[in-house]
Structures are given as C-alpha cells and as structure tokens.
Design a protein that fits this description.
Order of helices and strands: EHEHEHEEHEEHEHHEHHH
Radius of gyration: 18 Å
Distance between the termini: 49 Å
CATH superfamily: Spore Coat Polysaccharide Biosynthesis Protein SpsA, Chain A
Largest sheet: 9 strands, mixed
Shape: globular
Number of strands: 9
Oligomer: single chain
Helix content: 40-55%
Strand content: 15-25%
CATH topology: Spore Coat Polysaccharide Biosynthesis Protein SpsA, Chain A
CATH architecture: Alpha-Beta Complex
C-alpha cells in the first residue's frame, strides 16, 4: 500500500493527442507557488508528439511521475490509474489542455485549512485557442449540495482540490456509449455517497479550453448524457429529470454567459 503524505497534493493529468497544449499545462503545474506536489502525467497511447513532450518535461522536474500506456485506456481508466497511484492526501485534476494560475493550489489549501472543508472548487475562464478568445470569469454557486448539482454541473474538473483523508479515493465509472460527461457522473456519485463539505474560491484559477467538433463539445449529446445521468445514476423520475435539464440549460447560460456559449457552439 502506498503511504500518504500529509500536505502532498497529487495532480492527475491524462494526456492523449495533447502535443499542442501539454507543455503549457505541465508548466502551469511546475510554476505553482505551492511546491509540495507530485504530477502523475499519464500518456494514453498517444500517436502524436505527446509522449516525447511528456518525457522531456519529466526529465526537468523530479516531482513529475510519468506513466506511459501502449494501449489506449480512455480517460476514465487513465484518471483511475492516477488516483490509484497517488501518494498525497490531496488530489487535484488538471486536463492536458487546461492551464492553472500560479497560486491556485496555495489559495485552495489555505481555504481548506481555514474552513475545514474537504472539497474546494473555483471559478474559471474559458478559452478558444484557435480564435485567441477568452471568456469572462464563470459565475458559480457559492454553496454546493447534491440538490444544486442535479440542476447542472458548476464544477470544472481542473479547478477541484479534494481532501481524500475524509473523502477517500473515489473512482470514476465509464458511461455506456455514446454518453459523455463522466466528470458530472463522478460528482453526482461522490456527493450522493460521501459527506462532501465544499468551499468556493471566487477568483478564477484555471483557463479551460473549449473545442468544436468533439464529443464533449456536442451540445445535443451533452443534453442526452445529462438526462441519462439524472435518470440512471441520480435515480430521478422522468418529470424531475426534465425539470433539471431545463435548469441545466439556463444555468449553463448564466455560468458562462451567452457569448461564451455561442463561442463554444460556433466559430
């Protein structure tokens, strides 16, 4: 069994076909003012230059633990491998196309200590790298419960810091094809099964990349996936699920703003 280290933060970063953004993402971790971290950099059978870039980055900093898979695991199994190998009492996620500001981890650790919460999430900004465009900071709820979570997902995966001393190592479950939003399913299960005490950091800590022509960027598929998660994982009645879907659309517009929504949907 891997011993856990008191204030060590284990950062989990899956990387697949991420050659264009990986170095910047990794450097945003390396530059953190909170220095007691390990980065589990998990290359998932990428066929571009991702593996080479990852190896070069790992050679620069001994805190980077490089894991390379020759067979494609997918993001769910890859994140679960990172969780399983994590040595820290705290876990953060950073996608390989997202970027952190320098004091993200330090500010979150201070908040967790001050409030005795075990789950910190923050605001974020959304960007289209192909258009050199960035949104205003996302508007998030300052309090988060399972009931609020069912109305729409305000949690950015790359903004979260979790204290696993109380939450435990909680793993992702794959959704059946063609559904997406495994992260949302993960939060619904976590909030349903664990005593999650949240604290919100209003200042944006993360730049989240949005992409066209991806499964996660397909809004019709997103709505279908949301309905599937509400019905099968959250166990909601059809009428309640329909109400929550409407809330999901309205709150998404509120969170990012209409302009950001349009930027994600269209060029």
């Amino acid at each position: 069994m891997i011993p856990l280290t008191d204030d060590l933060i284990s950062v989990i970063m899956p990387a697949y076909q991420a050659a264009n953004t990986l170095e910047r993402s990794v450097r945003s971790v390396i530059s953190q003012s909170w220095t007691n971290w390990e980065l589990l950099l998990l290359v998932d059978a990428a066929s571009d230059q991702t593996e080479l870039i990852a190896k070069n980055m790992a050679s620069e900093d001994h805190r980077i633990r490089l894991i390379v898979s020759s067979q494609n695991r997918g993001v769910v199994r890859t994140r679960n491998l990172g969780i399983r190998l994590a040595k820290g009492n705290f876990i953060a996620f950073c996608d390989s196309d997202d970027f952190w500001i320098t004091d993200k981890l330090e500010n979150q650790m201070q908040l967790l200590r001050k409030t005795n919460a075990n789950f910190c999430y923050t605001s974020a900004v959304y960007l289209r790298l192909d258009l050199n465009w960035k949104s205003a900071p996302a508007r998030m709820p300052t309090r988060l419960t399972l009931k609020r979570l069912l109305m729409g997902n305000p949690i950015g995966m790359s903004t979260v810091l979790m204290d696993i001393r109380s939450l435990g190592k909680f793993y992702f479950e794959a959704l059946p094809a063609p559904y997406v939003h495994e992260d949302y399913a993960y939060w619904v299960r976590l909030f349903s099964q664990q005593n999650v005490q949240t604290v919100y950091l209003k200042a944006p800590t993360t730049e989240v990349s949005i992409h066209l022509h991806t499964r996660s960027g397909n809004k019709w598929l997103a709505l279908k996936s949301q309905h599937f998660i509400l019905r099968t994982i959250a166990g909601q009645h059809r009428l309640k699920a329909g109400f929550f879907i409407l809330s999901y659309v309205l709150l998404a517009l509120h969170k990012r703003g209409l302009n950001a929504w349009i930027r994600q949907m269209f060029r």
